Amino acid sequence: MRILVVEDEQRLSSVIKKGLTEDGFAVDTAFDGEDGLYLAESETYDCIVLDIMLPKLDGLEVCRRLRNKKMRTPILMLTAKVTVEDKVAGLDSGADDYMTKPFAYLELRSRIHALLRRSTGEISPMLTLVDLSVDPIKHTVIRDGTKIILTPKEFSILELLMRHMDEVVTRTMITEHVWDYNFDGMSNVVDVFVASLRRKIDKKSPHKLIHTIHGVGYKISETA
Ligand code: CA
């Protein structure tokens, strides 16, 4: 899952980026409202963390413009302000949730996971298919009772496939949601990661879950 963090306080931005990266997210950062708006419109994100007090364009305006363009990406607002009016303004501008600074990183992470669940219509935090279960918060994968160790990128690809269960996930979707802005899309790196993911998830089981859709991408489902 890929996240845009728009926050002008360098220290806070790097703490959030470090935490989310360690938790397996692909993270891009912007340090003012204009850059944030530009990235939000030109790249693909699963969630946007948006500070309200920003240079050039404030977070409320960024949020309003994105919503006016019918962009539905979940937006979590950060605010140093604490009045009820400010919270209402944030939600009225089209944000899905807000957090008041200072906050604990773990709470931010939990709220992001909740927004991701809501945006894909999931109720349980666990993603399950047949005997495979994936926990996006604890980053654990279990197949047929056995724990499977994945690299962060393998995990992110599996999480994306599970969130789009029974749907075709294209290579482009994988590069957009799993890698950040610096990704070199010219290589066959997606196929390499999917191949290693498949070895770990499917090789020992007679029931294959990850299917190749030739010329298009991949699908995870009970049947091909
Ligand atoms: Ca700020």
TrEMBL record:
<dbReference type="GO" id="GO:0000156">
    <property type="term" value="F:phosphorelay response regulator activity"/>
</dbReference>
<dbReference type="Pfam" id="PF00486">
    <property type="entry name" value="Trans_reg_C"/>
</dbReference>
<dbReference type="GO" id="GO:0032993">
    <property type="term" value="C:protein-DNA complex"/>
</dbReference>
<dbReference type="GO" id="GO:0006355">
    <property type="term" value="P:regulation of DNA-templated transcription"/>
</dbReference>
<dbReference type="InterPro" id="IPR039420">
    <property type="entry name" value="WalR-like"/>
</dbReference>
<dbReference type="GO" id="GO:0000976">
    <property type="term" value="F:transcription cis-regulatory region binding"/>
</dbReference>
<dbReference type="InterPro" id="IPR011006">
    <property type="entry name" value="CheY-like_superfamily"/>
</dbReference>
<dbReference type="InterPro" id="IPR001789">
    <property type="entry name" value="Sig_transdc_resp-reg_receiver"/>
</dbReference>
<keyword id="KW-0597">Phosphoprotein</keyword>
<feature type="DNA-binding region" description="OmpR/PhoB-type">
    <location>
        <begin position="124"/>
        <end position="222"/>
    </location>
</feature>
<keyword id="KW-0805">Transcription regulation</keyword>
<dbReference type="InterPro" id="IPR036388">
    <property type="entry name" value="WH-like_DNA-bd_sf"/>
</dbReference>
<keyword id="KW-0902">Two-component regulatory system</keyword>
<feature type="domain" description="Response regulatory">
    <location>
        <begin position="2"/>
        <end position="116"/>
    </location>
</feature>
<feature type="modified residue" description="4-aspartylphosphate">
    <location>
        <position position="51"/>
    </location>
</feature>
<dbReference type="GO" id="GO:0005829">
    <property type="term" value="C:cytosol"/>
</dbReference>
<dbReference type="InterPro" id="IPR001867">
    <property type="entry name" value="OmpR/PhoB-type_DNA-bd"/>
</dbReference>
<keyword id="KW-0238">DNA-binding</keyword>
<keyword id="KW-0804">Transcription</keyword>
<dbReference type="Pfam" id="PF00072">
    <property type="entry name" value="Response_reg"/>
</dbReference>
<protein>
    <submittedName>
        <fullName>DNA-binding response regulator</fullName>
    </submittedName>
</protein>
<feature type="domain" description="OmpR/PhoB-type">
    <location>
        <begin position="124"/>
        <end position="222"/>
    </location>
</feature>
